[in-house]
Amino acid sequence: MVAGTAVLGERLYEQRVETVAIVLLALAALGWLALGYAVPTLIVFTSAKSGIADADGTWLLWVVATQGISTGTSMVAPPTGRAGEAAAAVAVTTWAVGVVLYVVLLTLLLVRLLTAPARPHQVTTPYWIIMGATAISVLAGSRILELDRGLPVVRLAVPVVEGTSLLLWSFGTWTIPLLVLLGVWRHLLRGDRLAYGPQLWALVFPLGMYSVATAEFGSVTGLQFLTDMARIEFWPALAAWVLVFAAMITWLARVMSRRGPRRERPRHP
């Protein structure tokens, strides 16, 4: 909810639908504050914990949502003045929180994958959020690098943001072959049938975000090879979107055909 609202708000802001965009970004920020504190608090105080065996890629949506707030704040930040300083501080702070959350949650996921038995139905497409979370973190970092470097918080953050973003982009790139191998193991070697489900969209978003983040980071840092790579990365993301969308339409058509036409109730005289 938080990430989707923030991303839509950012896109509308780029299209100069500013009033609607700011409302959506405000809603995303409120949702992030509420969920970001309520969920961990409830987990800490509940006695019925499920354990690390249930950890999966969806946990990283916390990171994606946090970086969505950072990216949106950077976009709407005034270039100068007290408001600009405050917005830049929020953007840098939430970016840093997202990076720390990524390290912590990734550690838990790796412990789960390396120490607990993995069954095919557990190695699902949300694990692609491992890469997607790095991508949106790089995008958020790129937006910070585009802010006015005369602002004190931006000037202090630039070296850390630039280096960490490069590190995250490198790690996200490294994970792609690993995630592909996990999919081959699940569907080809273990015979788990590939069928449409809403979780498939968790594959599409990371691919698209990876392309956008690569292009933005390459542009802001002057790394031309990243900009060139982004043009190639776009096509697998588009292909994945088309395939998943087609699968969704086919699935919906089957569901509707099973229901059949509605029968009118007989009228009593």
From TrEMBL:
Its main location: membrane. This is Tellurite resistance protein TehA-like permease. It comes from Pseudonocardia adelaidensis. It is found in: Cell membrane. It comes from the Bacteria. PANTHER family: PTHR31686, SULFITE EFFLUX PUMP SSU1. InterPro entries: SLAC1/Mae1/Ssu1/TehA (IPR004695), Sulfite_efflux_TDT (IPR051629), Voltage-dep_anion_channel_sf (IPR038665). It is a multi-pass membrane protein. Pfam families: SLAC1. Belongs to the tellurite-resistance/dicarboxylate transporter (TDT) family. The keyword NADP does not apply.
